[in-house]
Amino acid sequence: MSGLCGFYGRAQDVVAEVISAMGKRLTTSGTELHTLQTPFGAVAVAAPDGACHLYRREGLLVALWGRPMLGERADRVAERLAQLWQTSGPQACQALSGAFALAIVDTVAGQVCLAVDRCGSLPLLYQRTPHGLLFGSSAADLLSHPDAARAADPQALYHYLHFHMIPAPHTAFAGQARLLPGEYLLYRHGKATRASYWRLHFDEHNRPPFAGRKQEFRAILQDAVRAASGQGKVGAFLSGGTDSSTLAGILGQVRDERPQTYSIGFDVPGYDEMQYARLAAHHFDTDHHEYYVTADDVVAAVPKLAAACDQPFANASLVPAYFCARMAAADGVTRMIGGDGGDELFGGNERYARQAVFARYEQLPSACRQLLLEPLLFGALGGLDVAPLRKARSYVDQALVSMPARLETYNLLRRYGPSEVLTTEFLARIDTSMPQAELDACYWQADALAQINRMQALDMRFTLADNDLPKVRQACELAGVEVAFPFLSDAMLEFSARLAPEAKLLGTQLRHFFKQALADHLPRAIVRKRKHGFGLPFGHWLQEHAGLRALAYDSLSDLKSRHIVRASFIDALTGRMVHEHPAYHGTMVWVLMMLEQWLRVQSAQRAEVPGTAHAALADHC
What we know:
The radius of gyration is 25 Å and the shape is globular. Helices cover 47% and strands 16% of the residues.
């Protein structure tokens, strides 16, 4: 395991014991815990060589987890950050690049600064106490401190059911919070202030010649892959999509050796894309490795994955990502290269094209829409039930929903209806409008006018920082390997922000610039393929595999007693709905199963600490 933890507050005689307890989780895989202490607090980092940075001088502790650079240098980064802190305060974070989480404890000034990198690649949580501040890379770190509050947060659980993860700044536990990408927290004299030291600023009017942009892009990409690969044996996730295939090819160029690539397949029609991974592996002459995940693998992995996750997490792609990382670790790989971020930075998600189609309706003259089309479709022709009119009415219905609420049209919880899924007593404790309000705030705060850029800003937070990056990071952490994301280098972020909107999405053509710039690098079939990824055929296996069905249905049966989800909904879900549409309704079965599995872990941990109120959502919902 790896991570950062610490605390600051009143003077005490048991600093060493407390920081050791907070860092216990970080040493479970044998990683050494490196600590710095003062009578008023301590910081600790456990990480592989090169990812732990500590510096101390009188009255000042600096700890960084990750592989950041300060300027052009990676050496003595903690010491150099300490110097900048004295002159620039929290704005010293602007000088750091790369993936990091940091803590600066300044006992002379009586303050603490916490921060994470621009993409939120590494997590950092914190909690104020009556005596000071706790912080750590997981909730478990904080809960190991004697002053930690341990009540659960029902609102966070609702966020989980809505998003299938808990987005920052929320965590599963009341009083805890998580930093957003590019954000710092300054704690001083009992008061905490959060602010952004960096935001993505879009230049929507930049139109340099294609040849120059292509050359710059390829150079940035090579530099990013070279930096991400580091030393030792490195491998690359290879799904056969444009991002992973691009990185696999460039990895071979910058390392001057055959890249090690790893792919996951499924022996289920419509889910297996191994043919594209093999095509890329052949094209780039990689040393390719494959593993076919089975339903038995899922049964074995689910409890382990639920226990490893810091909070409820329902991205089912965690399973194949874990088996892929485990395969690489068994092969001696110490670091994996992930293609996450390419879709968001260069317009690769299919919803970008779909929302562009709806946006065209908004561009019609209002008189045409309100005086002609809508009265005709919903008035004069409203009674006609024919396919073309049904399709037209559905299109207009969706187009009339403003962004970003339109993105939630297919949200499972909204489709079912919260009151149909959740118990009355649980709903009375939460605000069902909060998830949409947070999406709205992020979307409209983006420094952009173009819809594609606002969606990019939204996805950088909710899709990447809160979902995809934790998925891959947790899979690799559990397998015992590091992971790096070249598409998320600082230079690549800035390059993406300078691309014109139509370079990302030309009409409904996804990745317009990206595909042109890499046309001579990628196999044509991969450039033309539709996005797929490591999707899990859970709904199919739920029907076919008795062991997986027993695991899922037993979990949902136990969930009934927690009075969060209506027993009647669970009965309808498992007894009728999942048989009608296994893939669609199977998603909710997975979400609820992973929730129950996580709650079981919390209950077990509480039982191991007699006489305490160790946090478990089951006790409060």
